[in-house]
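Why does residue order matter? Because the sequence determines the fold. Keep that principle in mind as you read this record.
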Amino acid sequence: MKYINEFRDAELGKSLIARIRQRSTKPARLMEFCGSHTVSIARHGLRQLLPPNITMLSGPGCPVCVTANADLDKAIALAELPGVIITTFGDMMKVPASRSSLQQAKAEGKDIRIVYSTLDAIEIARSNLSRPVIFIGVGFETTAPTVAASVLQAQQQGIDNYYVLSLHKLCPPVVKALLDSGEVKIDGLICPGHVSAIIGSRPYEFIPRDYGIACVVSGFEPLDILQCVDMLVAQIEIGQPRVEIAYRRGVKPEGNKIALELMDKVFEVCEGNWRGIGVVPGSGLRLRKEYQSYDAEHNFEIRPGKPIEPRGCICGDVLRAVKTPLDCKLFRKVCNPEHPIGPCMVSSEGTCAAYFQYGEVGR
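Structure:
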């Protein structure tokens, strides 16, 4: 059965590519907004399989990458406070901040622990009641509900030494900010699958309505992405942009009602600070007033200092899709996964890491 499925998928992939090549006559610049899409496109060589009139751009779809140095500096400043235990996902450890990284701080003796879920962080707090335990909440709408659930769990169980540094980002507002800047011209948007599983497809409706840009929510397999491109091309060719879902098995137009209610209960919308983009109104999440006792920024004095950007790194330009890793003088020469200069090379979903690992040559 495995080989039959592989044959079927290969034949379907060839059919999709042939159809895209046949029907695509207009220049089309398509941007993906998801690190998993970025990796899949690079891993399977989709950029090179598409016709030359289709240009694939990588946007700010990696949550680790878009976290600004100013926010990373806050996490490290918290780690330096006496008695504090920092909990974080592993992909945050090597990200270089202004003067250090969480990995370097850990090597210097700070208590920083990698967790695989907020449940792990809650358990660490329960086992260390005399010490503050801070979870670094980084991610898009995908991870925010789990962090919200951890705050409610801490409240229900009377765990009062658990805190969250909320660095969460919301995707639709930053898409609007990028389009309003006029810096990058795109004709179609490959909307993120994980994020859309939470928020649904309706929050993207302003994009075709106000900007005339085609939108399709995609899954993560190469066939998913090819189907998404095929649907985008169809919209572009007839000049009728709209929002469609090519990932019906994971995304509904209305999203996940329970997850959205959970987010809204614990968080409120605030401004968000995006690497390479800056402060975008309405693109961040902070804990509501009734949950401020779990807010690390509200309960600790943080002195991170003035943020400093790494010299020569163009990660911000890559995230805005105005440049590719191939435009960076540091790429492969100085900056590599073993010695990352910027976060786009650190994260497994970073554009620079994908270009490095899969030998992207661009087009």
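The mean pLDDT is 94.
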